[in-house]
From TrEMBL:
Protein name: Carboxypeptidase
Originating organism: Xanthoceras sorbifolium
Keywords annotated in UniProt: Carboxypeptidase, Glycoprotein, Hydrolase, Protease, Secreted
Broad enzyme group: hydrolase
InterPro entries membership: AB_hydrolase_fold, Peptidase_S10, Ser_caboxypep_his_AS, Ser_caboxypep_ser_AS
Family membership noted in the UniProt record: Belongs to the peptidase S10 family.
Claim: Amino-acid biosynthesis is one of the keywords in the record: no
SUPFAM superfamilies on file: alpha/beta-Hydrolases
Localization of this protein: Secreted
UniProt keyword Hydrolase present: yes
EC numbers on record: 3.4.16.-
Length: 473
């Protein structure tokens, strides 16, 4: 297990360096301040950043908020969040966004993907014409504990599984809607990407369970969307060689060689499912051997977007975010005091190793049967959570509409009358492959991602601009 854990830490550090991020700490910890914050409660302040340009049509004085919530089922954990009121209408749905990693801050998405503004090279903020706050009241949460500005003084608060993660998020939501009762009646959607393919199904099931049991405030959950997620590892790891061969990252001889290590991965996942604990940590090492063999052959490609090269470890440069959020003036505006911003936590990554190879697809059919809408989307040029693996698990999922979904035609997803993707739909389930995008669809295709979110929430994604039907590939 020690070897597996060391391997995971190296993988986490490689991930962080790929974004040109250098957090000062591997985990966000702080001195316990329980004397000043008594009991589980939400402390929030409205803030205003100086932004360039015009945000466009808006409700009067739309608010930007940041806050901390003292998580009740922990020793000393505080969850940090941003909340941006809709630029259009406060009755728009409430959408929460979760970034993966595990252990990467949702501020990555806020400033580089779908937040209200983007961060320019001179550290000024520019309004994002395709921010998701144009169609929703938007929440970004730093989780699990130790990520971003979320912190604890007690390492027992670090989460290792989806039960801990989803309970913390549910507790936060209850506090958020108690503080903002005017939004509790709005439709609610869960979104995110990458390792959030684990977080999101567990969180959605927790919200649905809470609603059924009449726990606390009823949350008007309508659906969830996973972008380039890791949800069913056994199916998705088996798809790596197929995707790599299709995209000409490897040759047929490489494919044949890599296929021979797939059975060991399958067996390791089955052992994880039956034994748990260390077997799950070991399965991480065994199965990542499949991915790493492909990368050794492919060389310096960016595994988040195979159209691009990486220079050394550097695949993206998100360092401005780290610099910006650690400025004293910004920390004062957000009310985080002396807390350092931990962009990606290698400790959180390592702590979730026992969770990595778990299959989170298993909870989705029950949600579909109850009419919860599910959107699985993926940029076509991402290797690490590729569209093919996602398509395979979605098609393999057993639910009452499985046969009809499988038989449904693939149709073009159109934006401004141009094809922006390929889509399949039946009932509450939609799968969408997004063209000309890698792992981070809202960054690569901002207009298409906003159109996708709006149409999906309005219930017409499957019919919006899809007049021209084509055969499934």
């Amino acid at each position: 297990m020690i070897a597996s854990s060391n391997f995971a830490r190296l993988q986490a550090e490689r991930l962080i360096r790929a974004f040109n991020l250098f957090p000062k700490h591997s985990l966000n910890t702080a001195v316990d301040d329980s004397d000043t914050v008594l009991g589980p409660k939400l402390i929030e302040k409205q803030f205003r950043f100086y932004t360039l340009g015009d945000p466009g049509p808006s409700v009067p004085d739309f608010g930007h908020h940041a806050g901390y919530y003292k998580l009740p089922h922990t020793q000393a954990a505080r969850m940090f969040y941003f909340f941006f009121e809709s630029r259009q209408n406060k009755n728009d749905p409430v959408v929460i966004w979760l970034t993966g990693g595990p252990g990467c801050s949702s501020e990555l998405a806020l400033f580089y993907e779908n937040g209200p503004f983007h961060l320019a090279n001179n550290f000024s903020l520019v309004w994002n014409d395709y921010g998701w706050d144009k169609v929703s009241n938007l929440l970004f949460v730093d989780q699990p504990t130790g990520t971003g500005f979320s912190y604890t003084s007690n390492e027992n608060d670090i989460r290792h599984d989806e039960a801990g993660v989803s309970n913390d998020l549910y507790d936060f939501l209850q506090a958020f809607f108690k503080e903002h009762p005017q939004y509790a009646k709005n439709d609610f959607y869960i979104t995110g990407e990458s390792y959030a393919g684990h977080y999101i199904p567990a969180f959605a099931a927790r919200v649905h369970q809470g609603n059924k049991a009449k726990e606390g405030i009823h949350i008007n959950l309508k659906g969830f969307a996973i972008g380039n997620g890791l949800t069913d590892p056994e199916i998705q790891y088996k798809a790596y060689p197929d995707y790599a061969l299709d995209m000409k990252l490897i040759k047929q001889s490489d494919y044949d060689s890599i296929q021979r290590v797939i059975p060991a991965c399958e067996q390791a996942i089955k052992t994880c499912e039956s034994d748990g604990g260390e077997a799950c940590v070991d399965s991480y090492s065994v199965c990542n051997n499949v991915f790493n063999r492909i990368m050794r052959i492919a060389g310096d490609i960016n595994y988040y977007d195979i159209r691009k090269k990486c220079v050394g470890d550097l695949c993206y440069d998100f360092s401005n975010m780290e610099t910006f959020l650690n400025k004293k003036s910004v920390r004062d505006a957000l009310g985080v005091g002396d807390i350092d911003f931990v962009s990606c936590s290698s400790t959180v990554y390592e702590a979730m190793l026992m969770d990595w190879m778990r299959n989170l697809e298993v909870g989705i059919p029950a949600l579909l049967e109850d009419g919860i809408k599910v959107l699985i989307y993926a940029g076509e040029y991402d290797l690490i959570c590729n569209w093919l693996g996602n398509s395979k698990w979605v098609h393999a999922m057993e639910w009452s509409g499985q046969k009809e979904f499988g038989a449904a035609p693939a149709v073009p997803f159109k934006v401004d009358s141009a094809e922006a993707g390929q889509m399949k739909n039946h009932g509450p389930l939609t799968f969408l492959k997004v063209h000309d995008a890698g792992h981070m669809v809202p960054m690569d295709q901002p207009k298409a991602s906003l159109h996708m979110l709006r149409s999906w929430m309005q219930g017409n994604l499957a019919t919006a601009e899809t007049e021209e039907r084509i055969s499934p590939k």
